[in-house]
């Protein structure tokens, strides 16, 4: 490939041409301290969350993009020539740079002026800092007198205030260098933790000291951007680097930076390792902790250990699931990069990427609930904590905060779908863990006393009660459903969400399945009383002949119907008809056939088609968006996962496989696709636009969490149920055999599937430890390992 490819073992993405069409980034973090890093070392660092705890700046939508970052400049003190350890910012000798993004680390290598360098960046698991581990080797035949300058631009606290109120905000910055600790410290004496727009000034300082230090003595330093960069220059050619001089002065006020200059004299052939460390120390324990904190990572061994721990952490995560399909390329995605992205999206909470700057919104309720399904298997304890956090963002009447910046601080909107996603997270968690005890755990409502988790789930049903249904008996649309851009359906009169109805049904089916397992017949009757009429209304009012419509607008207007000029058919209203098991097979098959006929394209199935070309205030934002992008007719990758799942549920493995392989992130050439080829983007521009194939909003999408689930549970067909592991593959008919190894309730299941007859679906025989069982649900085994042989047919 033109810019890069996976390493042979699939565990790194290797970039050999660093002039990628967009920054191709990676995430280094430990759950508290986060650092994003691109192939050119651009990125942000934050502690806690990117809105309130921003350590470094990143200039939004800048030209050139992706600045600033984690930069190290090298200068030859004799000749005056200089470059950076990453290609940018200096921009010299591009072909000499190589980058490897691995799980939790990034390595950037180059050889400029016969100085070979390798910089590995990582965040230790147990320490709130990032390390830039630099190895330099003098490959020339003469002694070299070099200087090395580590550089960051600080933000210090609230990133949005920093952006919109710089002129005032910079009066609170403090920065100084402490000689005895060889460390630069920076903080802010004012800190906003509430709304950035408010006029009520908070009476507090940022609760952290940021620090920047190096393992070798700092010879010179600087703290002020204007002084370091110089007038009418930029990070390409900072005057301090060019001249080899620095003020070595602290500065309270202004655009504060950390620039640490070291001197390294290298004999021919000599190598030296230098470690830069950028992190935070809580003010509350600063005096007590700082000496010990700064004494760490002064030698290579400590960094090697930290990197080994990061690798082990990710290995353990991946080790919960391992597949071997006939296609190595798919294995790389399924075993590593899809679960990696899913985990990152969960941990980052979708708020920080090259596209999301972490300044506008917090955790989305529905997004968080969906991201949770990615980790219930590998890290049930964290999934459980997230479920509790979500339950606390709920009101007694079943409404929830649509998004929240911190626990109990959020915004309510009138999206009809939000609360129901909690049912998904809870049922998924219990199926995986068997921990029905969670239902008895207590959490307060935002406006009421504590109640059990089961009561929280029951409260959600109120959102499907009569007062929240429209005249067709379907959910009142409000300001949107899963699709945020269907936000004015029906205008002032309000409309109804057909997809919302299907989604409620699907979630209630999940709930009923749980209640059946618990033997709670009393409650089953209660849930069915809400669900059954919905099923009936959907089938009676919403079938359009060949597919389901998407919504009702004012005056019975159908949205997503044969009668519509644009947005005639929507993907979600077909796939979720299947996911909700809404009708008989014939109708559901017809839905998915219509998807293929009307929505599929060279780059995948579109979210809806044809795209809207005229603004329609009674539909909403979708119609204001250019055609072929985002929700207006792009290949929106998140719902593609449901399309694949629907095909699997219909047993059409060939179709499921076709959609899966067609939308893999590396299928389209990178000059067209532009985003990272190793992770999913939110959407791929469709043929409704004149730039089809271009992707955007990579990394922070629900796609990976769902794709992980859909591929393992439905395509490869190994899914956790309350009473065992269900084996129900829907694979391409040309696959003859594959294996899935998966940890379930503490036991490692090694499942070998054979497909001698070349079918797409159907299980003839399941042998557990050599004994054939009835049906296709493998009962919970004693372990530690359980071998399962499956014959399809
Ligand atoms: C974005 C939002 C998500 C929403 C989707 C469709 O991905 O984060 O919550 O469901 O767009 O509008």
Q: How would you explain this protein's 3D organization?
A:
It is built from 20 helices and 41 strands. Strands 1-2-9-10-11-12-19-16-15-14 form a ten-stranded antiparallel beta sheet, covered by helices on one side. Helix 8 runs antiparallel to helix 9 and helix 8 (365-372) packs parallel to helix 10 (421-433). It is globular, with a radius of gyration of 28 Å. The mean pLDDT is 96. Alpha-D-glucopyranose is lined by residues 364, 366-367, 482-485, 631, 682, 701.
Total of helices: 20
Low-confidence stretches: none
**Rg calc:** 28 Å
Q: Report mean pLDDT, rounded to a whole number.
A: 96
Bound compounds: alpha-D-glucopyranose
| Strand numbers in spatial order across the main sheet | 1-2-9-10-11-12-19-16-15-14
* Structural class by sheet pairing and helices: alpha+beta
Total count of strands:
41
Write down the overall geometry. globular
Strand residue percentage: 25-35%
Distance between the termini: 39 Å
Q: What proportion of the residues is helical, as a percent range?
A: 25-40%
Characterize the biggest β-sheet: 10 strands, antiparallel
Essential attributes:
six-stranded antiparallel β-sheet; globular; binds alpha-D-glucopyranose; single chain; alpha+beta; 28% helix; 793 residues
